[in-house]
Every structure is written in structure tokens, then in C-alpha cells.
Amino acid sequence: MAKRAAPEVNAGSMADIAFLLLIFFLVTTTIEKDKGLLRSLPPIDDSEVEPPIIKQKNLFTVNINRQNQLLVEEELMELKDLRQAAIDFLDNGGSENAEGQKCDYCQGNRDAASSDHPDKAIISMKHDRETTYEQYMDVQNELVAAYNFLREREAKRLYKKFYPDAENVYRAMLDEKEKNQFSKDTILNGRIEVIKKLYPMKLSEAEPDKN
Amino acid sequence: MSKFKKGKQGDLPAISTASLPDIVFMLLFFFMVATVMRDSSLMIDNILPSADQVEKLKKDRTAFIYAGKPSAQFKQLGTEPVIQFNDAIIDVDEVKPSVIAAQQELTEELQPKFVVGLKVDKDTHAGLVSDVKQELRKANTLKVMYIANVKTE
Questions:
Q1: Which residue of B has its CA nearest to A40?
Q2: Is B35 within a domain?
Q3: Is residue B5 part of a domain?
Q4: Beta strands in B1-153 (DSSP E)
Q5: What residue ranges do the domains of chain A occupy?
Q6: Chain A residues within an 8 Å CB radius of B152
Q7: CA geometry: angle at B70 spanning B65 and B76, to 5°?
């Protein structure tokens, strides 16, 4: 038999096939970005050291019961009032910290019956086993918001001049740190540390009672 | 003189579409590479709570722990909230070996920055979450992120 040249394959529909595949992948791709509240758990401490005594006035207790009700400093409270109450407590600055410094940046009403210094102020949170996770997260969110509010205020006071256009100075600083994660900016990191030190996050969680 | 004859003027030459498949293929490959197929199918209901003070999560150093009530197809698991890790339902005391194994899989420089992402259904009771957290403390993986939807007001 005579050898015949194979006819050329028509490649005109290649684009159509590729488009079809492209559209399939376009539709199925979801570029999801997870967000959430980042917290650090306390390490397990086996040492038998006596824990330091914390004065009642430096402790802000938040209890959530199984009906998802909030008991803040032994008083019933609505969730929407929690943020302001936490801010007032942290920002009180009634006395001195461990080094004997007064809180000169606090703008609270310096009530002697409330916290001495943001360094010493501790928020203690406890929940029941039957509390819903949603309520737990709402409370966490409000408490983190209280810290963020105060840190934002201090960032604005100290570093507004470096971020004249930013609406939220602290946010802008953190965003910039995120962007420069491969080239460390020591000045910026130092500034963030300064602000974190002004209002250190001391949020402790007690384990729910086992019954 | 007329060495450089001008061609017929007037009708435009057709635009060549020969490179169109190449362009499309390029896009196609980009999306094929960028697509991550979901690696674990959830056996539980997972409606996340919402929060507005959120931070971004870095995926390269994270292992996820899911918790919630078993979903409709998995009724045989009961109605009590359970914990899921990767593809399997696990007990509370299996959390520790699982997260340690997940941490070992990371590259050396990321291991100290290991984060556990907790994707917990909002109707779960918080006692289960605190059990998980207790296990994480035992495993010494102390960075935790409570994954939440971003609240929009």
C-alpha cells in the first residue's frame, strides 16, 4: 500500500477546550483566607512555687454561666457594656506598678478601688462547661477589643507623626510588620513592643469546674 | 522604483489567533497550580462564630482541629459534639499525639511557630474547647487561633 501522509490534526478547537478547563478551575477555586483571634495558652507549670498574691482590686473577673449570662465583678452585665467596663478597669491607673512608677499615660478616673497600673491589671475569665462557644468567643472578642482600643490610643499619641494618613495607627504598624516579614525592621518592631508594654495583655482563663 | 511595492491597501489583515491557546493554557496552569483541593471533608457541622478583632492566619504553620455536632450524614456518631482532625473523628486524648505529629511534618524553622487553628461550631459547648486546650498545653503547642468569621457591621 502506498504510504499516505497523515492529515494534519485541526488545532482550531484547542482554545475552546482550554477555555472550558480554565472556566472549570476558575469556578472551583476558592482562595480562602482564615482569620481569627490569636491567643497563647499558658504552659503547664509543675513547679510548687507559691503563686504571688494578687490584690482583688487588680483582678477583673468575668464569669459566664450556662445560660450564657455574664457576671462581671460580681454584677450581672450585658455583653455590649463589657468592652467599656474592661477599658475603664485597665486604664484606671490608681497607683503604682511594681517598679514604683505611676501610670502617666492612663486616662482613667484613678479610682483607688480599681486597678493600680496596667502592668498589674489582670482580667480573669471563667466559663461553665455548658456555655456556648459563640458566647465564649463574643466575650473573648470584647476583651481583646478593650486591649486593642487602648493600644490604638497610645499608638496614636506616640507615633501618629510617622503615619499621618492612617486612620488606625496601631493597625497600620502591624500591617507594615506583616509586609516586612522577610526584612526585619527593628525600629518598627521596637515601637510595637513599646505599645504592647504599655498595655500588656494579661488575660487569664480559669478551667471550668468539672462536675 | 517599485521594489517596495505596497500591498493591497484597505482591508485589514485578520488578527492571528494562533497564540490564543498558549495564553489560555498559561492561565489554566496558573489556576491549576493555585487551586488547593480541600483535603479533609468535614463530618461535622461547622458554622464559625464571628468576631471583629481578628488577625490573619498563616497557613504554612497551621494545623486545624475541628469540633462540632456530627452532621446529618453521620448520625451514627451521636448528637454530642465531637473533635475531628484531618479525616478522622478523634478522642480528646488523641489530640496531643495528633498535633505533635502535625508539628513534626513542618520544616524545621517553622516548627517553633506552629499554630493550632480551632474551627469550632458556635453551638458547641465551651467545655469541649477547654478540654482540647488542656491537651494542647500538654503537647506544648501553645499558640492557638480561634478561627472566626469577620463581623461586618
A1: B143
A2: no
A3: no
A4: 50-51, 55-56, 62-68, 82-85, 88-90, 115-120, 143-150
A5: 56-206
A6: none
A7: 130
Q: Which of 118-147 (B) contact A at CB < 8 A?
A: 118, 120-127, 129-130, 133-134, 136-138, 140, 142-147
Quote the CA–CA distance of A34 and B86 in Å, as a whole number. 17
pLDDT in tens, chain A (211 residues): 566 778 777 777 877 888 888 888 888 776 667 888 888 888 887 777 777 788 888 888 888 888 888 888 888 888 888 888 888 888 887 777 777 777 778 887 787 788 888 888 888 888 888 888 888 888 989 999 998 898 888 888 888 888 888 788 888 888 888 777 777 778 888 888 888 888 888 888 888 776 5
CATH number at residue B127: 3.30.420.270
Q: How many CB pairs under 8 A join A and B?
A: 146
B110 touches chain A (CB under 8 A): no
Instruction: With 0.90 as the threshold, say if the pTM is over it.
Output: no
Contact B121 A140 (CB under 8 A): no
Q: Please report which residue ranges of chain A form alpha helices under DSSP H.
A: 14-28, 79-90, 133-159, 169-179, 186-198
Residue-number span of the structural domain to which B137 is assigned: 50-150
Question: What total of structural domains would you count in chain B?
Answer: 1
| ipTM confidence | 0.74
- Write the single-letter amino acid at A161: K
